[in-house]
Amino acid sequence: MSGVRLGADFLSTYEEGTKREWVIGNGLGGYASSTVIGAGTRTYHGLLVAAPENFPGRLLLLSSLDEEISIDKEVYKLATHKYPDNISPEGFNYLSEFIRSPFPLWVYQAGDFTLKKKVFMVHGSNTTYVIYDIISRKEGALLKIFPLVSSRDFNLTARSGYLSFYQKAGPAGVELASSNGFTFSLSSNLRYHPDPIWYFNLEYDSEKKRGLNFQEDIFNPGYFESKLEPGISRFFIAASTKDISSLTLGQVDKLYVREANRQNLLILDSKLLESFALKLLKATDSFVVKNHTTGENTVIAGYHWYSDWGRDSMISLPGLLLIPYRFEEARSALNNFARYCRRGLIPNTFPAFGGDPIYNTVDASLWFIHALDRYFAYTQDFLFLSDIWDTVSSIIDNYCAGTDFAIGMDSDYLIWQGPQLTWMDAKVGEWAVTPRAGKACEVNALWYNALKTASYMGTLLGEDISSYETLAAGVASNFENTFWNPETNCLFDLIHQDEAGNQVKDPAIRPNQIFAVSLPYTMLSPEKEKAIVDRVEKDLLTPFGLKTLSSDHPLYKGQYRGDALTRDTAYHNGTVWPWLLGAYVKAYLKVNNSSNSSLEEMRVLLEGFDAHLEAAGIGTISEVFDGDSPHAPGGSIAQAWSVAEILRAYVEDVLGIKP
Description:
alpha+beta, nine-stranded antiparallel beta sheet
């Protein structure tokens, strides 16, 4: 499968070269990532960001490898770094090509030399490998590679006064022990020379724009060196949390082939043939990881800063794991969240891969039931359905009786929840940016869907499901009267009470109502479902997803940028989210009877992301886009449910490949 290839036009300036980023994962939550010109612009950028078993988080260990080739008093420095007053060196001037297939590859043309550098990680290991193929057309050239290292939480910057290193050097590498207690190793078939020095005041442009700490100091323990003979030379450098002192070039080459074959097998197992679908399929892999505590699979919500979130995992599961036929991992992910179900609540998040789960979500449990239903549709796994049935019944029983965070069923059978429990949950201090305490339209659409799904699954298992049918009928009898807004011909977003106890219906046009059409079980007439889709299309649809608020609303914010306060204010008040297109496509096709013209329209809409795969996070889909045209991407460069729902909608709904 062809990958992304960028030529010199995209690499010739610092400004252009830092617009695009790449990330590869290791299946543990660790990763390697930077810009396409190798300049770090985030605290999260690094060639080895590890997720150690004994540490509840992720550590940046290897920031970069700075290569230089010298001959006849001429020195070609290939790295790029930003400092307060300048960019030095400017290695992008020698960069002729960046290729992302299957792993990042850079081609540098410097004088009489061509240097190819590729970076990969092996699944299940906190190890990064860098392979160099160098063509020299002169004698007497010398190659030096300077590793820049740290040992810090990937969210934070570090200074030399707060961090120090002890190094145990050998001819083929070095073991580094940091003052904060972490040990890691560098190994190579180049000769290592200790020569410690600190690089001061490196700057990260993206963090500066976000109003965060953007300067830090990085340690260079020494350098790797070799003479270059005329012809082709081949070298490697590896960085790892384990002992790699005996690593050889032959072993590294075998690991490269093994990892490439693993990714190729994912493609073959999916049985997909369409180019766009295969590109998205390849993007899914980095989000599927192992939970440190349970050993079960889980889903990274996004790169770089997210951990595993219940809502995101359940929404993403069909696209990430069912369409690629990764059924064992799908079952494991469901198990992972089911084992932590408490009082009917699936965790909202497991902070930093190992912290105690946080349960402040109303909809993750309802999405769990939906994900389980989709898993069963693909696998017909009755045994697993039987094993996990208690979790389903616990969710429904607790929602009926009432559980934590003021979540519970009202006398009209509809679900009420406390503040900031839906997916629109941004807060600034104690200020709820998008207050949605009350009865949310999508939560109750999910509640009805969960009841009908449980009734279906319970029937298959021989359970008494009469109470579920009674509850579902109660929800259906009240949903339309409660949420339908005849003035806008769509749903009220929220029903809540003011300080005097009076009922208030929020008429804001938001995308949450689309789920009342797209879910497997719905309650409205075909005419009203069509009206919802028409309203969403008119007021919220963009080429990259649905706006979170119509642009005529006084709270609408059309751009997602600036400091944390500015971004959070816009996060759910106009910002576009790609994952919502999954529900929109399903709903649009439903109300148009999947006509040929509607299928073609949705195919074109989804394939519009093809160009985006080369525009921000290379080969993946961003978390959000601006509400205003031209809809610039923002947030995380790779978001699980963005990729998963675009892929699922394309394969299941447009191509019609589904159980």
